[in-house]
Amino acid sequence: LDDAYDGAYYDKLSGMPSRDKYRIRLYNLDDRLILLERKRKLGDLISKDSARISRRLAEQIISGDPAGLDRVDNPLIQDLFREMRTKLLRPVVLVDYAREAFCYPAETARVTIDRYLRAGPRTALFDPLAPTVPALDVDQAVLEVKFDRVLPAPVACLLSGAPATRSAISKYVACRRFEPLK
Description:
The chain is 23% helix and 35% strand. The protein has five helices and seven strands.
């Protein structure tokens, strides 16, 4: 989701030290677990809030209708209501990819490999036949490494030979290049 001025997009591109990004997430088109998430960046710290939502509520948010969200007993959903009312937050793009995740218990380190990044219509979250376009070359993948304080030595050793460029890539920004911006 993004606001009427594509603030999340432009804040990411300009490297704003403090920013929020809202999204609706599901895995493998399974509507039994749908999450509303807010990823918050404050300087070098990143946090994520999430709330489980129903398909009906997800479809309401996707349609851009904030009606009644202020009465839901969940602070994240109430925050979304305020953003939809004051900043005209609405869905702008479908971001789809295949993920492999690996966890290392020390320092709660997590490595994910996201392949086949594709962009699609903002309203197609539950459509298995939604038309999508590749957002990266077929031989490219996004490797994310997350950890609490210190990257554990075994994980660092495994990554040391990986042919990669360190960067702060955004799958959202990569997929937005197909959508009109303001």
